[in-house]
Amino acid sequence: MLQGRTALVTGSTQGIGLAIARALAQAGAQVVVHGIEDAAQGAAIAAQLPTRSAYVRADLARTGEAAGLVGAAAQALAPIDILVNNAGIQHTAPIDGFATERWDAIIAINLSAAFHTMKAAVPGMRERGWGRIVNIASVHGLVASVNKAAYLAAKHGLVGMSKGVALETAPQGITVNCICPGWTDTVLIQPGTYRGDVAVWLQQALEIRGIGPRPVLIADGEVAEGKAIWVLRNGRFRIRNIEFRGARSPVGNASGIRFERGTLDLADCVFEDN
Fold first, then answer.
1. Beta pairing, strands 131-136 & 82-85
2. CA–CA distance from 265 to each of 26, 81, 82, 95 (Å)?
3. How far apart are CA 214 and CA 211, in angstroms?
4. Are 73 and 80 a contacting pair, CB within 8 Å?
5. CA–CA distance, 119 with 104 (Å, rounded to integer)
6. Which of 11, 83, 108, 151 is labelled catalytic?
7. How close are the terminal C-alpha atoms of the chain, in Å?
């Protein structure tokens, strides 16, 4: 289907990006894999794809490297017909405690890098009369949650920018689309141990999966056994293998769940919809 096309997928050495790179290759496209791994490690990942591939390293937090990525990818393989802006980072903190350097990095990688790559890719796509741009945003490009000011700003911005560039380029045979994934099991959301407000984290998990916010009931004492049963209006949501340290057992009520601040160990955490 995509034979003769060349794709560049940013942030494609793992997670969603790697899955996209594999899917494009399986459809026949040759693929430029991008990441921040060293050349040997990145090349080894790219070599696993079933079609011709290459690896390009670039730190998207640096304007020059982000702006030069499309050119470097074209030099490594061929002019880019398909651009997938997938690279992203995350950091959570209240607005009054959000480090400025973390804000700058998230905006640079999650939003500005996509601007730079699209700016560089569109002229060639326009000249050839064909191009496909897919920007990987997030459910947080559509809805909000607490302690994610920079991520929300970047992802909402990416959705808006995609709409605008789509209108600009549609007459030239170029399509621009935005995908907003929900909760996906990748390195980005596996911090190992979460320290903070357990109730906030769990509520975000429900919202991201499209289950909440809704009234939740939990039987007191179940957490002590390492298992919590969340009874929702539309069924059950079970969280297994979670250890609460320094947190009291939850108290169910009609409006939600109350926890003391504590530590939530996310190792071997499994989410199940029943």
1. parallel
2. 37, 43, 40, 24
3. 7
4. yes
5. 20
6. 151
7. 37
pLDDT by 10s per residue, the chain, length 274: 999 999 999 999 988 899 999 999 999 999 999 999 999 999 999 999 999 999 999 999 999 999 999 999 999 999 999 999 999 988 889 999 999 999 999 999 999 999 999 999 999 999 999 999 999 999 999 999 899 999 999 999 999 999 999 999 999 999 999 999 876 655 444 443 333 444 444 555 544 444 444 333 333 333 333 333 333 333 333 343 333 333 333 333 223 333 333 333 333 333 333 3
What stretches of 57-215 show up as alpha helix (H) in DSSP?
Answer: 63-76, 100-107, 113-128, 149-169, 198-208
Q: How big is the CA angle at 243 (ends 239 and 249), to the nearest 5 degrees? A: 85
Q: In the chain, count of helices (H) and strands (E)?
A: 7, 14
Q: Return the residue matching tokens 């970047």.
A: 154
**In this structure, are residues 103 and 149 in contact, taking their beta carbons and an 8 Å threshold?**
yes
Tokens of 38: 């060293």
Its pTM stands at 0.70
- Give yes or no: 55 in active site: no
174-179 vs 131-136, strand pairing mode: parallel
Q: How far apart are CA 60 and CA 108, in angstroms?
A: 7
* Bridge partners, residue 83, by sequence: 8, 133
